[in-house]
Write a structure and sequence with these properties.
heterodimer; A: mainly alpha; Arc Repressor Mutant, subunit A; 2 domains; two-stranded antiparallel ribbon; 9 helices; B: alpha/beta; Rossmann fold; 6-stranded parallel β-sheet; 6 strands; 41% helix
Chain lengths: 187, 148
């Protein structure tokens, strides 16, 4: 017998949270999607148990407000780097405006949690975007440099090499040969 | 960074290099747990065991007796449960040709063995930080290439 199921992930999620927190006898408020507030003081071991129980359902506790903030910063950066528009002139002004917090605060929390700086993370994401554009083989390096706000191809190539250790053309060669190899393997 | 350690596996036949590596990881501020094997055969036997903690990143020396780094790399890339482990090759060679060849064969990171301890520490810290971003920030692992 074959069954076709239809489900509401929101209801399933709420039910899982409810069962797991009841199991640990914790009082809580459901604040809306993916956010709960626990009224009781939670011990380290209870937290660990809750984490283990939720992990079985693929749910992770994004623990502190700080890591939530870091996630928001990352999301904002990714949105910025992958937007169709030209990148903003000032990263710090963009993030301050987007997250309504002082840049100094954002920057220190980010470094505390990720061990890397916001500026570094942006460079890494820009390199990732560049890699993605390069690997489509649809754009020239000049077009990519322009899209990613570099003043020249040389500047783009230098920064790409600075982050990845290889030049854009070496990257393109490597990805191309890797694809050829994997096609050959399948044949 | 996680409270749980980042699991690191090193395959190198040189005892001094292994010691250097271990000390470097003890000194950097990131919480790591380092496991070491002495050559390629030992590495593949280790990875073939059931219920082991798979490493987040494997550092692979190119020149090892019995089974060298490239052979290990090629084998690992053929095995479904291992092929997604990030692989950092480290070698004394810095020829562009060698570097490109290992990348094409599926390595993610290429490290030219530094001669002094502080440079090694800096390089390893950088590798772990970038690797962590690939683990946590949803970056495309197919494009994960880093040469140091």
């Amino acid at each position: 017998m074959k069954l076709y199921l239809k489900f509401d992930s929101n209801i399933a999620f709420k039910k899982i949270i409810q069962e797991q927190l009841d199991k640990l006898r914790l009082n809580y408020d459901y604040l809306g999607f993916a956010e709960i507030e626990i009224d009781d003081a939670v011990s380290g071991s209870e937290m660990k148990e809750l984490d283990t129980c939720l992990n079985l359902y693929g749910i992770q506790i994004v623990e502190t407000q700080k890591s939530v903030l870091v996630q928001k910063i990352k999301d904002a950066i990714i949105e910025m780097v992958y937007s169709e528009d030209k990148l903003p002139i000032s990263n710090s002004a963009y993030l301050t405006d987007k997250l309504k917090q002082r840049y100094g605060y954002l920057s220190s929390v980010f470094t505390e949690i990720t061990y890397t700086s916001i500026e570094n993370f942006i460079l890494l994401q820009k390199a990732e975007r560049a890699k993605q554009l390069i690997s489509t083989n649809e754009f020239t390096f000049t077009e990519i440099a322009y899209t990613l706000n570099y003043s020249s191809v040389a500047h783009f190539s230098n920064q790409f090499k600075g982050i990845t250790g290889i030049t854009p053309s070496a990257f393109q060669r490597i990805i191309k040969k890797r694809r050829e190899n994997s096609i050959n393997l399948k044949e | 960074m996680p409270k749980n350690p980042i699991h690191i596996l090193l395959a190198d036949d040189d005892e001094d290099d292994r010691l250097f590596f271990k000390e470097a990881f003890q000194e950097i501020k990131i919480n790591t747990s380092v496991k070491m094997v002495n050559d390629g055969v030992e590495l593949m036997n280790h990875l073939a065991q059931d219920n082991i903690q798979l490493p987040h990143i494997l550092f692979l020396d190119l020149n090892m007796p019995r089974k060298n780094g490239i052979d290990c790399l090629l084998e690992i890339k053929q095995l479904a449960h291992l092929k997604d482990i990030a692989i950092a090759i480290y070698s004394t060679s810095s020829s562009e040709k060698d570097i490109e060849a290992t990348f094409i064969q599926g390595a993610n990171v290429y490290i030219k063995k530094p001669s002094d301890f502080n440079t090694l520490k800096k390089i390893l810290e950088q590798v772990i930080t970038v690797n962590w971003q690939y683990q946590t920030s949803g970056l495309n692992r197919d494009n994960y290439l880093l040469s140091l």
